[in-house]
Structure formats: C-alpha cells, structure tokens
Amino acid sequence: MLFIGDDWAEDHHDVELQDETGRKLASARLPEGVEGIAKLHAIIARHGGEDLEPGQVTVGIETDRGPWVQALVAAGYRVYAVNPRQAARFKERYGTSGAKSDKGDAHALADMVRIDGAQLRPVAGDSDQAQAVRVVARAHQTLIWERTRTFQRLRNTLREYFPSALTAYASLELTSTDALELLVKAPTPAQAAKLTKSQITVVLARHRRHRRDQRAAAIQAALREPQLGVAAPVAAAYGAAATAHARLLIALNEQIAVLEEQVSAHFHAHPDAEIYLSMPGIGEITGARVLAEFGDDPTRYTSAKARKNYAGTSPITRASGRTHAVQARYTRNNRLADALQRQAFSALNASPGARRYYEKQRARDAGYNPALRQVGNRLVGILHGCLKTRTLYDEATAWSHHAALPVTT
C-alpha cells in the first residue's frame, strides 16, 4: 500500500508518498495539468514496483472536483476528499504553534489517509450526466444567491435617498426586470416624478403584465408622493449607484433564466429523473439540486441512514455522563439542506402522508422547523428506497404505517 498526501494550489501540487509504516518515500512539487499527473504516476511506479495495483494507492486531497481529481479517479486510485476542517483538526496533533507549510500539509494528509482512512469518505464515482447536472444546478443556485445579495444592496441604497421607489414598485417586485428597467429610466426622485403613465405602460406591456393601466396609474401616483429628499448632486450620485445595481440585476435575471433551461435539460437526460420527479414536493429545479448533491454512485450510501446523515436531516446525539441531548446537524451540505427544506415544505400540501407525519411531530411539541426537518428526513429515506429498488414513489406504500394518524384541520 502507498499513501499520498496532495496539498493543491492554483498552479501546483505538493505531494508526499508514504508506505504502510508511515515512512516517507518521496516528496515533490508537481505542476498542474498533464505534466504534473504524469510525474505523479512516475513517482508511484518507481516506489510501488511492477506488482502494485492501482487500488493499493490511496490519495488524500482537500477537494472532490476538478480535472486533477478526475485523473486520479480514472487511474484507479482510491481518492479521499478530505474536509478542510477535518484536516485542520488533524494537523493540531503535530503542534500548537500554528506553523503552516505546503509540505507540512501534504505530510499531514498522507498521515490522515493512512491512519484514519476508514473514517473518511472516498470521492464518489458519479456518472458524467450526474456531474453535468451538478455543474449547472450549482451555478444556477449561486446566481440566485448573488441576485439576492445584489438586491439587498440596491434596497439599502434606495432607502437612503429614494424610499418611495420601494413602495411604487412593490406590486411588481423590485427584482423583476420591468421594475428594474423603470428604475434605470428614472433613478432619482425628480426624474421618477416626471415619468408619464404611457412611459410606464410601455415597459409593463413589454413584459406582459396584466392590468397595465391600473398598475401604471398606481406606480405614477406613488412616485409623485411627497417625500424627504437629499441635495441634487447627492441624489445623482445615489442614482448612479442604484443604476449600476439595477443593470446587474437585469443581467442576473437573464442568465438565471438561461441556466434554468440548462438545468431542466440536463436533469431530464438523467435516468433517475423520473424517480426524483415522482417524489412529493419536488419539481425540476429542486429535483436537479437534490440529484446534484446526492450524486448517482450506487455504492456511495450503504443504507438510508447513511444518506440521511449526509443530507444532515438526521439528528445527532451528544451523551456524556448524565448529559444526553439530541440536536440538529448544523455542519452539513447547505445546498442540499436548502433543497430538502423546500421539498419538505411543498410536500405538506402535495402528500397527505407527509402532512400526517408533520402533524404527528407537532403533536409532540416539536417546533415548525424541527417538524419540517423530520418530514425531510423521512422523505430522504423514502427516496433512498425508491432509488435502490428502481421504483417510483407510491403514497400508500411510503406512509402505510402512518395511515391511521388523523390530520389536524
């Protein structure tokens, strides 16, 4: 057996090679790309001998994606994606001074996969289609998060000099493209007060808004309401800042719509899409996000409990002496947790069984979020069974042992 610690950077990798006893066999700094991976194979061949099988080489690295990781997996090596937090805690055993070096990190990673390999999770062997879904689903969600942050900046800016805009465009939602276009057209209170009803109606018509005349009249009236103002030069400066945020939001809206089509296309091309869509509370986007984070490696989750633990929906127990507490998991995959929370919320209306199970948790004095998290935990277990048996979701089968529970009206 050979154990390799790989401390990666943007343009190079520091690696250390150890044998089963922890003896250092080699260390090197390798360039990123084909040249670097070829040199790594050569080092392994030189120290492993002709009889060494690829499965006898274990690599620890603090990432689970990228061409380098894919090349290691393709070579047949056992690759462990080490959580940076786990690696930092492991390195504390070497000293408390806080000293750090790339070579030292590579040494610690090699020790970690050699000593604690049984506690680590190997990189999943997801299919190419699952990886494609992951790329577009994460990009789509990241743009939505970025839109939310940009909107908060725009909202704070408007509150400082043009609060009536928040009231005027509330019926359209300020993140909508037509509201943003009106803001770009008239970014200051003085300019907005001069907007005519026909100018507003043209923008609303371009975006196919209903009741355009009534909406335009209400927006015009709100923009002409008296308000506390700032000096003209200050208002112009704020207007420039608001225009920049508004144009960025318009671009984000456009790209989010484009990526949403890509998410749908890649998701429907995956063979598991039908199973995911049969689950209650899941649509195309949520289903794609859940599939992207779970992956489709059939050997990754040995049981429903393992899938629930990875999802972060199952609770953890803290027991020490006379103290015994059951708590929610807060260290988890936030993208997956967000998608499962959305699914559980929607399932309360889509599935009578999920609603009964939720009411049962509330009857036990569980709060809203803990009860919803338990519904999500149950749905993850049902999903695991459907994927394992390659069957679609069935309401009667999934909640058969909860059928006698009454539903609170």
Automatic annotation (TrEMBL):
One of its GO terms (molecular function) is transposase activity. Residues 275-359 form the Transposase IS116/IS110/IS902 C-terminal domain. InterPro entries: Transp_IS110-like_N, Transpos_IS110, Transposase_20. Residues 4-163 form the Transposase IS110-like N-terminal domain. It holds the Pfam family Transposase_20. This is IS110 family transposase. Coiled coil: none annotated. GO terms for biological process: DNA transposition.
